[in-house]
């Protein structure tokens, strides 16, 4: 479960009165999920209840090399300025995103579950830390985007974290299949990443999500290769979500027109903030 930064409580009740013992045993079984490695098992004993937590020794240990990576094709890079500018670009973008935590949280408290700002800041901080300590290489976009996806996976929760990880992995894999990488290929990789978010997330333009900023920005990049133009369209798309009366995806999907009116989608605003920062770097 995610999104516990908002005020409130969550209770899940499952009726097992007509269920078999096998189903109950499966629900009580330990698992190896990172944040749910064991569960509390409550057994009725008259009026007394006893809590039994499975021992970690009951679960088989599995050795996983988290640093092991599959071989990735690294095409030649026809972007002379990439090595000199990529680090500054990414650091400027994540710095701006982190500084927008309060703004994004304000929007998400109204039209979401209140955790967009802190979730984005966690991802931004993780990327910044990994770039500064060398865990995210900035000399080639294939490895840079793949490593950024790893950072997002390890630090961001919720749907936005999953979708942004997916986008950067798709960008990396798209570039790895190129004969060589220039400005056009970079723009097409962004488009492929945005398309992946739409495909697997199920949203499109007009659904009141981050795609309302991402789709026009990516389309502009493919057509003009201009970060400035992409930034302008991302802002127009993000600002436009404040006038949308209905959300067909995301947390806002559960809210009334009166609640949504006048407040932009925080995910779209985050995208706009990032593109503005990228366009501002000389």
TrEMBL record:
Protein name per its UniProtKB record: DhaL domain-containing protein
Reaction equation(s) it catalyzes: dihydroxyacetone + ATP = dihydroxyacetone phosphate + ADP + H(+); D-glyceraldehyde + ATP = D-glyceraldehyde 3-phosphate + ADP + H(+)
One GO cellular component, as annotated: cytosol
Gene Ontology terms describing biological process: glycerol catabolic process
SUPFAM superfamilies, per the entry: DhaL-like
DhaK domain mapped to chain residues: 1-36
Phylogenetic classification of the source organism: Eukaryota, Sar, Stramenopiles, Ochrophyta, Bacillariophyta
Species annotation: Proboscia inermis
UniProt entry keywords in alphabetical sequence: ATP-binding, Kinase, Nucleotide-binding, Transferase
Any one Gene Ontology molecular-function term assigned to this protein's record: ATP binding
DhaL domain residues: 84-280
